[in-house]
Amino acid sequence: AARQQALARLQEVEAQRKADAEREAARYAALQRQQAMETAAAERIEQRTLLARGVMPSDYKRRPHYYLNIEMINAGGGVLVKPEEER
Prior knowledge:
By secondary structure, this protein is mostly helical. It has helices at 2-47, 63-75, 83-86. The protein has three helices and no strands.
């Protein structure tokens, strides 16, 4: 009976080790996928060129909209009017 209990305990320990190894492999694969996604996102950001803010006179009435438009372009969001087309 003691041998049977010892054998059953060894089987439980081995099953637990296998489950731990599978869990660790799944975690490692998830980390690799996350790292690949972050690397791809960083490459997309590096490829994008940012626009410089132009210095406009103080009486330029559309300045807040111009700055908002530049910020939207730099953030990668939608753009209503590109700065070149405003004038």
